[in-house]
Amino acid sequence: MSFTARDIPFTILCVAMLGALVWMFFLNPLLAAQLSINGLVIGALYGVVAMCFVLIYKASQIVNFAQGEFLLVGAWVCWFLLTDLQLPFFWGFLFTLVFMTLFGIALQVIVLRPMIGEPIISVIMVTIGLSIFFQALMKWMFGVFVQPFPPIFETSTVNLFGIMPVQTAYLFSLVLSLVVMLGFAWFFKFSRMGLAMRATAFDQQVAQSLGISIKVVFAISWAIAAVVSALAGVTVGIVNGVSSELSFYGIKVFPAVIVGGLDSIVGSIIGGLIIGLLEGMAQFYDSEILNFGNLITVAPFYVLVIILMIKPYGLFGTRDIERV
Amino acid sequence: MTATDLDLGHLSDDAAPDIMLSVNNIEVVYSDVILVLRGLSLEVPRGKVVALLGANGAGKSTTLKSISGLLKTEDGEVTEGEIVFDGERIDGIDPDKIVRKGIFQVMEGRRIVADMTPIENLRLGAFTRTDKGNIQADMDMVFEYFPRLRERTGLAGYLSGGEQQMLAIGRALMARPKLILMDEPSMGLSPLLVQEVFSIIRKLNEDLGITILLVEQNAKMALGVASFGYIMEQGKIVLDGSAAELMDNEDVKEFYLGGGSEERKSFKNLKSFKRRKRWL
To answer: Cβ–Cβ of B128/A211 closer than 8 Å?
Structure first.
């Protein structure tokens, strides 16, 4: 791990980022703190979605372009249960998760299982197809307008440390993200199925020689990805309302996983947090100095391009990933 | 040792041995076009060690993979014949189901999960077990067989070759299989470690009664632990017999054990070449 000339661009990038972060606090500490916290909360959600993305990638080498649609479907289903069926939030949320588990398994069994053994690129094309299909289906079923969730929390904001207003939904989302991350950590370290999934990610033939059914592992990884993405979808829906905008999260996942490294679960969380924070910074400089008005949307993708140029394996990715 | 092996061989021949696994006349094709095994048959009696010997590319590993079902993962297929394990046909079944039936393959090159600890690897071996209570006891048993694995707490990828082989065997034990298919356990190990691995194989068979089908390049060591042996060439069995018979066989001596008489190196090469041709 010695420092070589190849590390110089990356170091400059890190220093520039940190500098921008610190400078932000000099210019307007309160707004900076506000945006950083919001950024980290959103970033945690990115991290959670990115984790699902990496989970599927690791288990089956499939780049899942339909990740954003999982958020969309989950949020719409939950919205439907809460508004049309008037279920209390707890039950609506729970049923959404059950539905998404079955949805993920069904998707794998019906659409993707027949593709086992086909070239990975065909499977990736199928996920693009799925993405378009569910986009259209959701628009057809629920319309194209933003639909707000019914109010779920009694107070919409809480004052953090007495001075900083933070939305309750953000706190809820932060707690949820942390629970999901700890759940993942436990699952992969201690559970039998988690170990089996890691073995499958390491080498599918070895996994099969140990009696692990890789079909079951794939189905479970899709189910987990669908459920956890739906969690994120519902949380975002509570804050911003549900609309097809949600599937944009599936695209935002790419900067996060590229920064973190395509095959690292820990990297995906850290990548998500970095991208979230970066969005907060972009929003700050945009509103305070630059006045472009849309820097927040494009900033993550600038970083994506830069990272791909100077550190293509991300922070935690393995170097021989293209040989997989 | 030779004497006892000879007796065992004859006993099992006479008393209609209890056949655990029988491979009947199988033909294996890879990618629909590459014919690798053509009419291969062999039998593994319960509680015995059987050696399957042969040169590189003879189809030994393919034979094991067609028994364990891993052939499927390499786009191979058993197109003719049948494989019967404990009275049940198992050809064409998914590998994970075959593991549940009690056949465990220790693949060539160890293939341990490098980014997990040895204990996690052992837990993976027990994946198919339903009796959760006994897993810890079995892990202790594995550590008794391989004491040095207990001290290794880092990632399994950093273990030495010998330790990795022991971990691979230990992982197989964790599944409590009836039959272990072992593919070249001596590969890449120092002579001393090879001896250790083979003495462990012998112990597993004697202490735990596990039946073992052993594929080896090291014919001398393999026939040392096995009671029966098959010799393969180009996808077929060309010779079989008790371990002692094979050890005494002139061709086996020359082609697999080394040695043989010195004068063969001259004009008689032709004769032994002919004899070899007859096998094919």
So the answer is: yes
- Tens digits of per-residue pLDDT, B48-77? 999 999 888 888 999 999 999 999 888 899
From A214's Cα to the closest Cα of chain B, the distance in A is: 9
Provide the shortest C-alpha distance from residue B276 to chain A (in Å).
Answer: 35
| pLDDT score for A319 | 60
How are beta strands B228-233 and B211-216 bridged, if at all? unpaired
CA B159/CA B188 separation, integer angstroms = 14
Domain ranges of chain A: 5-318
- The interface predicted TM-score of the complex, written ipTM, equals 0.84
A-chain residues near B95 (CB < 8 A): 208-209, 211
SS (H, E, C) chain A: CCCCHHHHHHHHHHHHHHHHHHHHHHHCHHHHHHHHHHHHHHHHHHHHHHHHHHHHHHHHCCCCCCHHHHHHHHHHHHHHHHHCCCCCHHHHHHHHHHHHHHHHHHHHHHHHHHHCCCCHHHHHHHHHHHHHHHHHHHHHHHCCCCECCCCCCCCCEEEECCCEEEEHHHHHHHHHHHHHHHHHHHHHHHCHHHHHHHHHHHCHHHHHHCCCCHHHHHHHHHHHHHHHHHHHHHHHHHHHCECHHHHHHHHHHHHHHHHHCCCCHHHHHHHHHHHHHHHHHHHHHHHHHHCCCCHHHHHHHHHHHHHHHHCCCCCCCCHHHHHC
The whole-angstrom distance between A5's CA and the closest CA on chain B is: 29
Nearest CB to B73: which of A196, A204, A210?
Answer: A204
**To 5 degrees, how large is the angle CA B256–CA B261–CA B262?**
110
The label of the residue with tokens 């090469």 reads: B269
pLDDT tops 80 at residue B279: no
Q: How many CB atoms lie within 10 A of CB A288?
A: 14
Give me the helices (H) in chain B, please: 2-14, 60-68, 95-101, 118-125, 135-145, 147-150, 161-174, 191-208, 219-225, 243-248, 250-252, 269-279
Mark yes or no for CB contact A210/B94 under 8 Å.
no
Q: Does domain B2-248 have CATH number 2.60.120.260?
A: no
Fold of A5-318: ABC transporter involved in vitamin B12 uptake, BtuC (1.10.3470)
The full length of chain A comes to 324
Total residues belonging to chain B: 280
Quote the pTM value.
0.83
Tell me the chain B residues in contact with residue A211 when contact means C-beta distances shorter than 8 Å: 95-96, 99-100, 104, 127-128, 175
Which candidate in B124, B174, B180 is best for mutational testing of the A interface (most A CBs within 10 A)?
B124
